[in-house]
Predict the structure.
Amino acid sequence: MESGQKEALQVEFPKEREKIYLLSEVADGIPFDFPDPFGPDSSTHQEIANELYELINRGFENICKLAFDTQNIPR
C-alpha cells in the first residue's frame, strides 16, 4: 500500500484511522511506499517481492503484536 492509499482509507473510515498502517511502519517504524509492480518487467516484480519478504521477516513480531492488540485477541 502506498501512503496515498493509506490516507484515502483513513478518510473513508475515520473511526478506524488509528488501525491503518503501511507495512513499513509496522515492520521498521519508518513509513515508506513500495512501487506498484504492475507491468511486464518480471525482474522488478522479483525485486519488490524480495524486499517485501525481507520486510515481513524483519517485522514479523511487530506485525503479529499489532494484529493481536488491534483485535483484542489474548495471546
Notes: The chain has a mean pLDDT of 86.
